[in-house]
Amino acid sequence: MTDNAHDEEYALEGHTGPIRTPMQLLVTVIFSFVVPVFVIIALVAFVTSESRPSASTQADDHVLGGVSTQDLDRGVAARIAKVGSVEIRDANRPLKSGEDVFKAQCTTCHSIGAAGAPKFGDAAAWGPRIAKGLDALVQSALHGKGAMPAQGGGDFDDVEVARGAAYMANAAGAKFPEPQRPAAAAQAAASTAAPATTTAAAATAAVAPAAAVTPTAAPAANAGEALFKQTCVTCHGTGLAGAPKFGDKAAWAPRIKQGIDALVQNAIKGKNAMPPRGGSTASDADMRAAVTYMVNAAK
Fold it and tell me: Which of 20, 41, 170, 243 is the most buried (most CB within 10 A)?
């Protein structure tokens, strides 16, 4: 009996198998299914590794945010680009006209009145701006104002920008002269182009006795007339914004009765649509000279 029980126990152990507990079953499942999955993934990665970019390329792609060759080229160009640049312009090149500047840059907004820009030829819109004087218009164009960027977003010479501003203002009724390069530059160019004194002439001058020369002072420019033509003519030349027109005796008569001092103070401090000093930076003496010039023309 005992021998039979022993044989039965031995037979049961032989048919049960190695998995006897739940933990053994879990381990078996992991090794049977999970491990083969990782092996397959590793094989796929190995097979496709030849088409992947190198480690240095991946690093560059990570920095640039892309993996294309164009992105890599841009990244290299960005790293080796110059820190700054210097642009040399020919100071003696011919200046572009105001019309050229307008057509190249200003027309984008001023032709249609975009973003609040005064429309080209609109006298009503340009009137208050013209009253401030050309200097104020040029400064706004150079430094930007409102939605308009500096230099109107262009890349012109300052004098060319001033020409563009004058061209638009004149199309709306102003009478601004076309801005030119500073006189100092013109004088320097003239002195450079002047012929040198010949050696013979120099020798003659050294031998000849110096003649007594009485210096004659050049007549001083009429400051009043100059300021009028530069600033006051904008309104007083056409009677813009209610300004008494130059030479109009009827319009100037009641103002002349107030006295020259009162008129000068109005010009300096501003009155109605006229800004202080007509929008210029003229001195009190120049303002008095300009007022006197206009008063005399209306007497």
Answer: 243
Extract long-range pairs of 189-193: CB within 8 Å, 24+ residues apart: 189/92
Residue type, 296: N
Predicted confidence (pLDDT) per residue in 139-154, tens digit: 988 888 887 878 766 6
The whole-angstrom separation of Cα 93 and Cα 48 is: 62
Q: What is the pLDDT of residues 58-115, one digit of tens each?
A: 444 444 444 456 666 666 666 666 555 555 555 667 888 889 888 888 887 898 887 7
Rounded to 10 deg, the angle between the 123-131 and 158-171 helix axes is 130
* SS3 label, residue 154: coil
Under 8 Å between Cβ of 221 and 293: no
**pLDDT at residue 185 above 70?**
no
Taking the C-alpha atoms of 57, 58, 62 and 68 in order, what is their torsion angle to the nearest 10 degrees? 60
CA distances from 50 to 7, 65, 74, 155, 167 (A): 62, 22, 25, 51, 66
Neighbours of 230 (CB within 10 A): 19
Non-local (6+) Cβ contacts of 268 within 8 A are 276, 277, 284, 287
The pTM score is: 0.37
